[in-house]
Amino acid sequence: MDNLSLLAFGSDGWGDELLSGLLVTIQLAITTLPLGLLIGFAVAGASLSSHPWLRRIGRGYTTAARGIPELLTLFLVYNGIAMLLNGVWRWIDAEAGFVELSPFIAGVIALSVVFGAFSGEVLRGAFQALDRGQIEAGQAIGLSRWDLFRFIKLPQIWRFALPGLGNLWVNLLKDTALVSIIALNDLLRMTNIAVGATKKPFTFFLLACAAYWLLSILSEVVLAQLEARANRGIRRA
Amino acid sequence: MSFDTVLQYGHLLLEGSWLTIKLSGLALLIGAFCAMPMSVARSSDRRWLSLPVRVYISFFRGTPMLAQLFLIYYGAGQYRHELQVLNLWWLFRDPFYCALITFALNTTAYQAELLRGGIQGVPRGEIEAAKAYGMSTWLRYRLIVLPHAYRIAFPALGNEVILLLKGSAIASVVTLFDLMGQTRTIFAKTFDFSIYLWAALLYLVITMLIVRVWRRLEDRLNPHLRRRAVQRSSTPAVAVAPTE
């Protein structure tokens, strides 16, 4: 069988399997993004809080979540939450069987934990880059806290944080590959399965790399446009 | 939490840590060696010189390192015959060398890109002054551009050291018993969750040691900034590194 027919759709080729894997990869990244950002905002808020113990929690979380390998975080979440769930389950019903955490959910949680720690630092930097005078001006004209955040802080945080968040998004896309290790049927695992059946490892892994590469390049193009849009009206040095 | 498991298997964790350090340390050294000429080529005005390097950097930074590892470790099998003819099969048959090659190729791309940023950050005036002195290109790079570029890129290179060390945990997937690999085996044997926490602690200790060492080195490298550095010591030198 030549290389092209290996990629055919249907029962003969692997095109549809690989495409379904690619969709899982994209789903995983897109599901993680808002959750990770939410953790990021919380961590940035905690790190900048006036309560010393909140600051300590924020700093401790960032240090731990950024210093531990993503793969270890994934296993910590996957096995840790499964054990916790089973403990609770047994406590309710001693006869209960073993429940397993879905690899997709474990992946989303683990990747959010990591994304939250890194984006927390990016957002903290953006908060600190805000111009005090503008915030005072907003307070002076009587904006409520929410309006101040919405109209003055957020648009600029977005502008300051976008380059950093863009890098983190590309990292997130690549980190999704790790979830294939706990048996999620993402692009890399589907590629593995195809390799097992066809005995053409180089061809298929190169193809998987090409797909990830394409996603990264596409993301960079979109991010460059978002950045240009966020910086409209800013005079360039 | 009981300490039985870590007391029984702790020596394996330390052995694993040593493999993790060896693997990422060697890869970083090879990467540092290859990244220098590559970053010079990348910042060249000649397109035939800079374009291949750009594609190389983009590929290795745009794809997961795990996929790269599979491409080299499993992918080599597809060309087993050719590799045997070339007498290179021993290299690609061994998971340690495959992981080393992958990590080295990967970190070369990252280091080259960071160093390119450093080269771009060298003030125009210094380069013009070197040209005015009649320095050859070789001499200019050796004495003026690269030393300054390394100083500029140094904190970012420290981040890369930590990122590669963390990334090296995927070596466990190709049957290597690095810190992650040992941890997974011990967990499979004992089902004692605390072993993951010990492994996490070990990784944190290693990264913190790197941050310390790197700050010392940075201080050495920038003697002209030393007095100011004392005043600013509260700002972290390595941005992604864990803050204390």
Automatic annotation (TrEMBL), chain A:
Family: Belongs to the binding-protein-dependent transport system permease family. HisMQ subfamily.
Membrane protein topology class: Multi-pass membrane protein
PANTHER family: ARGININE ABC TRANSPORTER PERMEASE PROTEIN ARTQ (PTHR30133:SF2), CATIONIC AMINO ACID TRANSPORTER, MEMBRANE COMPONENT (PTHR30133)
Main localization category: membrane
Transport keyword on record: yes
Membrane-spanning residues: 20-50, 71-92, 104-123, 160-184, 204-226
InterPro entries named in the record: AA_ABC_transptr_permease_3TM, ABC_transp_permease_HisMQ, MetI-like, MetI-like_sf
Protein name per the record: ABC transporter permease
Start and end residues of each ABC transmembrane type-1 domain: 22-223
Pfam families per the UniProt record, alphabetical: BPD_transp_1
Signal peptide: none
From TrEMBL, chain B:
Chain ranges passing through the membrane: 20-41, 53-76, 161-181, 193-214
Main location: membrane
Domain ABC transmembrane type-1 residues, every copy: 17-214
Coiled-coil regions listed: none
Keywords, comma-separated and alphabetical: Amino-acid transport, Cell inner membrane, Cell membrane, Membrane, Transmembrane, Transmembrane helix, Transport
Annotated compartments: Cell inner membrane; Cell membrane
Signal sequence segment: none
UniProt keyword Cell membrane present: yes
Record membrane topology: Multi-pass membrane protein
InterPro entries: AA_ABC_transptr_permease_3TM, ArtM/GltK/GlnP/TcyL/YhdX-like, MetI-like, MetI-like_sf
Pfam families assigned to the protein according to its UniProt record, in alphabetical order: BPD_transp_1 (PF00528)
The family this protein is said to belong to: Belongs to the binding-protein-dependent transport system permease family. HisMQ subfamily.
Protein name, as recorded: Arginine ABC transporter permease protein ArtM
The organism of origin for this protein: Marinobacterium zhoushanense
Lineage, highest ranks first: Bacteria, Pseudomonadati, Pseudomonadota, Gammaproteobacteria, Oceanospirillales
